[in-house]
Design brief:
With 105 residues, the chain is of the alpha+beta class. It is built from 2 helices and 4 strands. Helices cover 29% and strands 24% of the residues. It starts with 19 loop residues before the first helix and ends with a helix. The structure holds zinc ion.
Length: 105
C-alpha cells in the first residue's frame, strides 16, 4: 500500500474493514477507551496501544505502542488514516486511529 492513495468511506460499514490488523487496532482502541472512561483500571486491562496526542493542526495522532515500546504517528490523509511508522494504511495503528476519529467526529 502506498501512502497517499486516496480512499473514501473506509469506515462506512464492517465489510470495509480489510484485515485482522485493522480489527485488532479497533479492539485496542476500545481497550484504551474503557480505561479512559473509567470502566476499567489500567491494571485490570493490559493496553496494547494508547493515544498520547491529537495534533489537529497537522491532522496527526501520536499513539504509544506498548507491544513495540515506541511512539507511532498516524496522519489523517483526506479523512483516511495512514501510519507513518509502518508506512501502510492497514496496520493496527490505523485501526486504532479509525476508532479515535469516530470519537472526534
Ligand atoms: Zn502502524
Amino acid at each position: 500500500m502506498s501512502i497517499g492513495a486516496p480512499k473514501t468511506q473506509i469506515y462506512s460499514n464492517d465489510s470495509d474493514i480489510r484485515n485482522n490488523l485493522l480489527e485488532e487496532g479497533m479492539k485496542y482502541y476500545s481497550h484504551w477507551l474503557s480505561v479512559e472512561e473509567g470502566s476499567f483500571n489500567e491494571s485490570d486491562i493490559k493496553l496494547e496501544l494508547l493515544l498520547k496526542e491529537v495534533d489537529y493542526e497537522n491532522n496527526k495522532l501520536r499513539i504509544h505502542d506498548n507491544l513495540q515500546n515506541q511512539d507511532i504517528e498516524v496522519i489523517i490523509n483526506n479523512g483516511s488514516p495512514v501510519c507513518i511508522t509502518c508506512k501502510t494504511d492497514d496496520c493496527s495503528h490505523v485501526g486504532f486511529a479509525i476508532g479515535v476519529q469516530f470519537k472526534i467526529n
